[in-house]
Write a structure and sequence with these properties.
By secondary structure, the protein is mostly beta strands. It is 7% helix and 45% strand.
């Protein structure tokens, strides 16, 4: 190895081990920082959220969102406590706890964002890659989770693997849902969301058949039957949450900001995450948040309703994990510069260690994104 290679290798090892702090509203919060020469990722240890993901050539963070903005005390300095930010993890559930569970302190979306995570030494060192590792214990759920995030030299793609372990002496049902949340200035009225989701339904429809009426991506329906195109969010967030199944081997969702010239995307195996859930929120008449959520459930209800319903569109609504069992999940996130008049994404392919994006509309431009072996295949 020559001197130049040694310097590069040293930089990549060091970059994956940085532990620093993030200033948010007066807080100096402990974080893990993952970076290479193209991009950086900041993971807040107070809840485990991916609080920032940015290209070094641009600096804009699409995940600029903080749940504290929904607090009655949003104008005050937030406390030094764990909370959801940017891309957070829903574990051991997606949606509301039951009334009985709430009485014992269980939060919506589970405990993962309510506990402090611990940075770990990452023992999965790979040549020309940087990585970080962290873990958390969820005491009420009886579940632990360990996350490994890695980047490769020459690529802004981030591969995330999460290993969930049941620490209970008995088996149980649970869910794991990724909750990437985009906000302004990346999010605006011209921001375009695309996906290969297919059949869907509106969460506001009542049990026992919330899947009626059925819709098909990107269309949804308001309660009065009016159609809504979910590619855009302008001034009416109804319906608030719409869920779709993924019928291809890989699922994907992208958000394109023509004003920023940036495209954020996620890619995963549908065998890990068969559901895509789109959440939309408007504040003061302007887009304020969009959830590009994907996971093991598409029904935003307590566990008793999931068991009673069982399946929607022949897709399960929960996972089962046995005593002492571990289950693993992977996804990739990517960020790339695009022309400022880019019309969103018509299709996405992953092959030969590249993510290939094809533009919607008449121009049909192609964007090739350098990746690496993300799911055990090239």
């Amino acid at each position: 190895m020559n001197d130049s290679s040694r310097v590069t290798r040293f930089f990549f090892i060091l970059a994956g081990l940085l532990i620093g702090s993030l200033c948010r509203g007066g807080d100096i919060r402990p974080v893990l920082k993952l970076e290479n020469e193209l991009a950086e990722v900041v993971i807040d240890l107070g809840g485990g959220s991916i609080a920032a993901y940015r290209l070094k050539s641009d600096g804009l963070n699409p995940l600029q969102w903080d749940s504290w903005s929904f607090s009655p005390k949003a104008n005050e300095t937030p406390p030094m406590l764990p909370r959801p930010m940017g891309h957070f993890l829903c574990l051991d559930r997606w949606g509301s706890a039951s009334d009985a569970e709430k009485a014992h302190g269980m939060a919506n979306h589970g405990e993962a964002t309510q506990v402090w995570w611990e940075g770990l030494p990452d023992l999965k060192s790979v040549e020309r890659q940087v990585s970080v590792a962290l873990a958390a214990k969820l005491p009420m759920a009886g579940i632990s989770v360990e996350r490994h995030a890695r980047m490769q030299e020459g690529s802004a793609v981030v591969l995330v693997e999460e290993n969930v372990a049941n620490t209970n002496p008995i088996g149980r049902i649970y869910n794991i849902v990724q909750h990437p949340t985009i906000g302004p200035p990346f999010l605006g009225t011209r921001t375009i969301v695309d996906s290969n989701g297919t059949r869907g339904f509106m969460q506001e429809r009542p049990m026992p058949e919330p899947e009626k009426p059925e819709v098909h991506w990107p269309m949804a329906k308001q309660m009065d039957g009016a159609e809504v195109n979910l590619r855009y969010l302008k001034d009416d967030p109804s319906p608030n949450v719409v869920s779709f199944i993924i019928e291809e081997e890989y699922g994907w969702v992208t958000a394109t900001s023509p004003e920023s010239g940036l495209l954020l995307g996620y890619l995963w195996k549908s065998s890990d995450y068969p559901w895509l859930n789109i959440w939309r929120h408007v504040k003061d008449g302007k887009p304020f948040a969009r959830g590009l959520e994907f996971g093991t459930s598409g029904l935003h209800r307590p566990g008793s309703d999931l068991v009673a319903k069982g399946r929607i569109f022949d897709r399960t609504l929960y996972r089962y994990i046995d005593a002492d069992e571990k289950q693993s999940f992977r996804y990739a996130m990517f960020l790339v510069e695009v022309p400022r008049n880019f019309d969103g994404v018509a299709s996405l392919e992953y092959a030969d260690s590249k993510i290939r994006v094809t533009e919607s509309g008449p121009r049909v431009r192609k964007v090739n994104i350098e990746a690496f072996s993300l799911f055990g295949v090239d």
